[in-house]
Amino acid sequence: MSTTMAPERTTQSPTLGSGMRRYLERVRGGDMGALPAVFGLVVLCVVFASLRPAFLTPINFANLFTQGAQITVIAMGLVFVLLIGEIDLSAGFASGVCAAVLAVTLTNQGLPWYVATVAAIITGVVIGTVLGTLVAKVGIPSFVVTLAAFLAFQGVVLLLVSGGTNISIRDEVILAIANRNLPPALSWALFALGVAGYAGLQLLRAYRRRQHGLPADPLSVIALRVGALVVIAGLAVYILNLERSRNALIVSLKGVPVVVPLIVLLLILWTFVLRHTAFGRHIYAVGGNAEAARRAGINVDRIKISAFVICSTMAAIGGIIAASRGASVDPNTGGSNVLLWAVGAAVIGGTSLFGGKGRVMDAVLGGAVIAVIDNGMGLMGYSSGVKYIVTGAVLLLAAGVDAISRKRAAASGLR
Amino acid sequence: MSSTSKESSPRPTEPRSAGAGEPDATQPILELRGINKSFGPVQVLHDVAFSARAGEVTALVGDNGAGKSTLVKCIGGIYTIDRGDYLFEGKPVHVSSPRDASALGIEIVYQDLALCDNLDIVQNMFLGRERKSGLVLDEDTMERMAAKTLEGLSVRTVKSIRQQVSSLSGGQRQTVAIAKAVLWNSKVVILDEPTAALGVAQTAQVLELVRRLADNGLAVVLISHNMNDVFAVSDRIAALYLGRMAAQVKASDVTHAQVVELITSGRSGDLGLTNGNGVTTEGKEAS
């Protein structure tokens, strides 16, 4: 009987070839990861670029980032809630409430920007704590809790901005987030720092694993990853550093928008939390098998509440970005299709609606797809009726891909 | 699961008498005396005595409702005992929560395994007890420890310890669950029906692993319905009958048929419960 046992565990390091083969196997098995998002992004860009040449101009490229920023940030927060297998339908209007709090403290009360920002973020934390407690401790399904909150927050925004008027924002610092650019030199410096940091971390990790006698990524794979980052990020920085003002003599418009480093920073922060801390591990565990997590001594309720807090806090940051971009807050900030776009972004990126699977990077990739769709449809001059229909269709498509890939994965025994 | 071909297969190398030669001299690492447990008016355990020794596999058998699960949950601290002595390494201890039990070195592998499908083997083995350096997870140390534990159990059936648990077979999952239990220098490992859902070859692998745990010096308690499995690996057999311990005997001293009699009627020849068939009026309620 022991002669028919499976082969020895592999202890030698994987090579580039074997890594590729494993990846292909995973994709065929239904674990497509970011593939649909990347594929969708390429197809959409090609379609819009061929239909509307304006799509490819540097100014439109910069617009994509500021347009997609709010949704991407909210989607990053939603990833946490989706990971534990719950949903937050109120994230859109939560960002609206926080933006309204920001506007009221900033403009109506005349407080400095940092006080207003802190007030908005605390509002997000409080909202998340309340929602999370209702879901985890009281046991109301998250769908119902956040649907109720969705309606209630809509009302809260109306009350805060007192009945349908809008509050304009004139604070320079807040406005800078979505409307100002970094100087080109600083953009390149940050790019170099980012690439060097990424490469350094990858090499250090591989070196440590070799030292400990564990299988490590080969240099070729690391070089490939770093190379991809250099090409994609370098190209983006290059294009953003081109002059995109119609008349450069009057006002020069070039450099990376301030929101971009902000999003990168949030991406690094939350990726670190999810992948390299016990808290992140426990989020995955609760999403994968809450009962197993409970038996392992993990405080499941605390993890659930934290996920909602992170989601609403990120919604608050999204709200600040929206307020900055619109230079005002009105009752529709964070309303209409913001939430659906955000959920769509997370799911298109590869985060599962069934919990336990997803990365923060998914939100960024999905957010890029959403931004391209939104921007491209704007350029094509479609009415808002068409836009709503497309929003719904995209969300449904993403959820469909998620469900089908999950089925395939179950059939192939991967997940 | 009742295939008779298995009787010879699971333990090809070690003789069954691995620890049975001198065990009466050694003190049991886990000993329960006169354990009583009731749920409201229903008394489930009546003066149950039970012991497990290091280096031995003790099979805990009994029909459905005999009180096996209750007894195990009492040992594991999920239920507190109403009356009776709980001795660990000869000293009386008070176990009132699962945390107390694992602090003593008692680990229970439940039937449903409680693994997270979306995590890999290492992540599952360390779930809730992650090694950290500062704030950051110490993946390298965890991976090495997990690899060492699996090697110590001579587990060669998994390709990579970084593969997701969802991609493992039933036997491999059982192996991971058992490895998770022994990772913590545990002294007593209780396995609840580890072979219940497994095929013939996988059952053999798991039973081999069970035997190896005992040979590594652990006290193993094996709950099973399958007499072939029980006789294949265990040194001692404890039979529960309607909440009473019918007998705890050496596996080499009894036959297959005797154990079945103990399970179904509480007695077999001179063995087992003495007062009639062991049923009192309150005993009937307990079933």
Describe what this molecule looks like in 3D.
The complex is a heterodimer of chains A (415) and B (287). Chain A is mainly α and 415 residues long. Chain A has helices spanning 16-28, 35-51, 58-83, 91-108, 113-138, 142-160, 172-179, 184-211, 219-240, 259-276, 278-288, 290-295, 300-326, 338-349, 360-380, 384-412, and strands at 167-168, 328-329. A two-stranded antiparallel sheet of chain A has the order 1-2. The longest helix of chain A is centred in the C-terminal third of the chain and has 29 residues, at 384-412. The model of chain A is unreliable at 1-11 (pLDDT under 50). By secondary structure, chain B is of the alpha/beta class. Chain B folds into two domains: 4-105 and 186-286, Rossmann fold; 115-185, no CATH class. In chain B, strands 6-9-10-3-11-12 form a six-stranded mixed β-sheet, sandwiched between helices. In chain B, strands 2-1-4-5 form a four-stranded antiparallel β-sheet. Chain B has a two-stranded antiparallel sheet with strand order 7-8. In chain B, helix 5 packs parallel to helix 6 (200-215). Residues 1-25 and 276-287 of chain B have low confidence and may be disordered. Chain A binds chain B through residues 1-2, 4-10, 208-209, 212-214, 276-278, 281-282, 284-285, 287-289, 291-293, 295-298, 356-357, 409, 413-415, and chain B through 9, 12, 98-99, 110, 112-119, 123, 127-130, 132, 135-137, 140-141, 143-144, 147, 150, 156-161, 164, 166-167, 201, 204-205, 208.
